[in-house]
Amino acid sequence: MYPLQSNMLTLAYENHNIIEDLDLNIPLYSITVLVGSNGCGKSTLLKSFARLLRPKQGAILLNGKDIHQQATALVAKKLSILPQSPVVPEGLTVYQLVRMGRYPHQNWLKQWSREDELKVNEALEQTQLLALRDRAVDSLSGGQRQRAWIAMTLAQDTDILLLDEPTTYLDLAHQIDILDLLFDLNKKHKKTIIMVLHDLNLACRYADHMIAVAQKTVYAQGRPTEILDAKTVKDVFGLNCLITEDPLFGTPLCIPYGKGQQQIKKNILSNLPSDEKD
């Protein structure tokens, strides 16, 4: 069972196609990472999964049914999205922001309940924000703010999380902090996570399933160890590189080089075992 699928999907802005005739299956209970060059359609694809962009052609299937044929309230209880660089109203506290994640569960018959409060507190605890619940979001560090937004999506209590570049503008320590949090949510709470990442090496480290987007479609998909090689990086990013093994995690490690750095590549290759030089 695939929680999200696309069938002959074409996405466009006005008359300019961004994605064309794309068939895609997102594995259940996995971390799926979308990679590709700027402007290739990663964020556009994520928006279509969240029903924020209607297909020009084809369909997005949520649990086997056309997402645009399902009620908005029902979709909001199945998946949540964290867009790139969201803006929070000035003065809003962490608790108030996270509480907004419960709006899909409210209606004129069902007002704020004990269950709602429990879900908000669970989300604050999972993101280690209980001590900061009364702080204004705009007073937090970048990593803390990102945790607050993730807490809001967790309070929404969906099985599927969509995140567009969740580590943007964060230093390396905070990037690892956020990605470790998402890893725990996936492994401990069985969340299906689909996210866009720019750092190829971190994508390889955290992804169960990687999708490389290029030329308006999927260039390759599978486990990072199965699909990532120098040719893929060259075709997808237009970048020369050496792919070796991460000494800590055993995942692909991309060492990029420019046209003027051929000698550096030769020096690296001369120090590698013969079976890794290809």
Q: Would you kindly provide a written description of the structure presented here, covering whatever features stand out?
A:
The strands form 3 sheets. This protein has a 6-stranded mixed beta sheet, sandwiched between helices. A 4-stranded antiparallel beta sheet has the order 2-1-4-5, covered by helices on one side. A two-stranded antiparallel ribbon has the order 11-12. The model has no long low-confidence stretch (mean pLDDT about 90). The two termini are about 35 Å apart. The chain has helices at about 40-50, 70-75, 95-100, 115-125, 140-155, 170-190, 200-205, 225, 230-235, 260-270; strands spanning about 5-15, 15-25, 30-35, 55-60, 65, 80, 160-165, 190-195, 210-215, 215-220, 240-245, 250-255. It has one domain (about 5-230): Rossmann fold, CATH 3.40.50.300. The protein is an alpha/beta fold and about 280 residues long.
Salient structural properties:
12 strands, four-stranded antiparallel beta sheet, 278 residues, globular, 26% strand, Rossmann fold, alpha/beta, six-stranded mixed beta sheet
